[in-house]
Specification:
Elements: H1 22-29, H2 54-63, H3 66-91, H4 108-144, H5 149-164, H6 169-190
Helix pairs in contact: 3-4, 4-5, 5-6
Length: 191
């Protein structure tokens, strides 16, 4: 055992401090003795909020899933497409038009029937496009692990290409480019 140095006399020079031991310092900074820091939003200038419960976390996970986003886009597209279809049918002069008798004025029942048919047709198309775009964007975002403008451009190209490909390769390429450009413009405007 090493001898302990005698305490300094009062008024005498202080003994030098012991040398710094880096291994002890490392244990406190990155080793087992490191204590996790509690990040308090109030101390950082943010609004303090209580920790989330398990139910809140479960609902958050469900709302961020690709299936929920696709279903929400499908319902939103259906509503928006239906409204757009009824609006366009309302301003179309050929609604209720009978080609067999062009001078006959259509009845209100015939006009409403045509408006309903066009509204349902637009609603289904918008719902399908919305669900396709939202689902592909979510899958692309999950695959890439990033949330940026490239996701919407890639998913716009996939969606437009899939819709246009039914009419042929050239239509698929044009649909891909058109949807990608539209997605980039909307994403640029919204971000």
């Amino acid at each position: 055992m090493a001898p302990v140095p005698p305490p300094s006399a009062p008024g005498g020079p202080e003994p030098p401090p012991p040398p710094l031991q880096y291994s002890l310092l490392l244990q406190h900074l990155v080793g087992e003795q490191r204590r996790p820091r509690a990040w308090d939003p109030a101390a950082l200038g943010g609004i303090p909020s209580p920790p989330k419960s398990e139910e809140q976390k479960m609902v958050e996970r469900a709302m961020e899933s690709c299936a929920f986003k696709a279903a929400l886009a499908c319902v939103g597209g259906f509503v928006l497409g239906g409204a757009f279809g009824i609006f366009t049918a309302g301003i179309d002069t050929n609604v209720g038009f009978d080609p067999k008798d062009p001078y006959r004025t259509p009845t209100a029942k015939e006009v409403l029937k045509d408006m309903g048919q066009r509204g349902i047709s637009y609603a289904k198309n918008f719902a399908i496009v919305g669900a396709m775009f939202s689902c592909t964007e979510c899958v692309v975002e999950s695959y890439r692990g990033k949330s940026d403008w490239k996701n919407s451009v890639i998913s716009g190209c996939i969606t437009g290409g899939a819709i246009g490909f039914r009419a042929g390769l050239k239509a698929g390429v044009i649909g891909c480019g058109g949807f990608a450009a539209f997605s980039a413009a909307i994403d640029y405007y919204l971000r």
